Amino acid sequence: MSDIRNETIPDGHEIEQAEKELQEDAHSIKRIFQQPKAAWAVAFACVVAFMGIGLVDPILPSIAAQMDATPSQVELLFTSYLLVTGIMMLITGWLSSRIGPKMTLLTGLVIIILFSTLGGLAGSVDELVGLRAGWGLGNALFISTALAVIVSVASGGSAVAIMLYEAALGLGMSVGPLLGGLLGSIHWRAPFFGVAVLMLIGLLAVWILLTDVPKPAKKISLSAPFQALRHPGLLTMGLTALFYNFGFFTLLTYSPFVLNLGEFGIGFVFFVWGIMLAIGSIFIAPSFEAKLGTKKSLSLVMVGIIITLALMGVGADWPVFLIVMIALMGLLLGINNTVMTTAVMEVSPVERSTASAAYSFLRFTGGSISPWLAGKVSEHISIGAPYYVAAAAVLVGLLLFTARRSAMDRLN
Predict the structure, then answer these.
(1) What does 11-57 look like in DSSP terms, one character per residue?
(2) 382: domain range?
(3) Do you know which Pfam families this protein is assigned to (predicted)?
């Protein structure tokens, strides 16, 4: 394993340049497998961290049945998780620049292990909601730091490191619901303990295999993300993502209640969704953006998302139709996620980590209300109504993006 003690965390320009290299070097995927143990350790922990987002998905109906809760009550497990993740994104850069990236990673992992274990022992929905909020804190600390660390320790160039991170994200998002379904078919508590065990393995791997990564040369202030949002282009992208993620998390958290499948069935459906998400994100988005440009790519894909969500509202009574639409949405969401992230990195001169923190704050907090609201809308209107609301939210995001195109003159 190479010595990284004298390396520094890459700055915004270096990572932005790496994303361009990623689009230009199709052969770099072969070099993903030629990594030092430290990179694999962080990548494995990334997989488990991203698994936590969709792990609860297949067991939501079981939790509701076991604890005599309504869909909107159970959906608060996602609301608390996303809300805390978004808010804590504002301090992760400040903390990492003071205690160091490795310690930030380990702190996040310890918090996830603690709260996922306690979640498996919870006796009520209210307890679970609070414990998922704690889980969100750990996840924010970890995922906000992991990309920069992987870029620092991976071999083969920064482009390969970013591809490794994206692969970990896609794998985690796909395997999470499947594992949740498998363990959830035993008992709804089992997925919480399963994540704790996997995260403990990840923590030991990071602790042993990752040598200390130097702190950034310049400490980041608590006000940096808010100052970054003064840039009109970055603010526009953040607000667009806020409304877009409303649709994203409505699909992810509400669909298990209308599929009429068991835990394993729901897990398998969202496993396929995650695979499609990864395909769209890693393999389709770069060429799509290269041919159409960032602005047109975002606009067209968001139109596709709006139409698909509206169709899901029409066909909410047909589980087979919903399954097909969920798979299609995985592809569209994967493309949109990658193009939108690229846009955030290019739209302003703000340092990348600060721009990412500001953007993540808006997108996660924006998405946090959608699970709870979807449950309420379905209880009081119809089972298809949450999809219409989600489509309307994405439409607002698209209209906002279109109306403020002049604020994003740095995008092609």
Answers:
(1) -HHHHHHHHHHHHH-GGGGGGGGS--HHHHHHHHHHHHHHHHHHHTG
(2) 223-411
(3) MFS_1
Question: Measured on CA atoms in the order 175, 181, 186, 187, is the torsion positive or negative?
Answer: positive
Per the rule left: phi > 0, alpha: psi between -120 and 50, beta: everything else, 405 is alpha
Q: Is the pLDDT of residue 74 over 50?
A: yes
Residues 372 and 307 occupy one common structural domain: yes
- Higher-confidence residue of 35 and 271: namely 271
Contact in structure between 250 and 371 (CB atoms under 8 Å): yes
Contact 339, 285 (CB under 8 A): yes
- Each residue of 371-391: b (16+ CB within 10 Å) or e? bbbbbbbbeeeebbbbbbbbb
Q: Between these two residues, 36 and 391, which has the higher pLDDT value?
A: 391
Q: How many CB atoms lie within 10 A of CB 21?
A: 15
Cα(234)–Cα(231) distance, integer angstroms: 6
Query: What does the pLDDT average to over 299-324?
Result: 96
In a domain, 123, yes or no: yes
Alpha-helical runs (H) found in 212-318: 224-228, 232-254, 263-279, 285-292, 294-314
Backbone angles phi, psi at 70, to 5 degrees: -85, 160
The position carrying tokens 């740095």 is 410
Closest CA to 111 of 137, 78, 79, 144: 137
Q: pTM for the whole thing?
A: 0.83
User: Are residues 319 and 369 located together in one domain of the fold?
Assistant: yes
User: Which H or E run contains 221?
Assistant: none
* Structure-block tokens of residue 107: 């702190």
Cβ(169)–Cβ(46) below 8 Å: yes
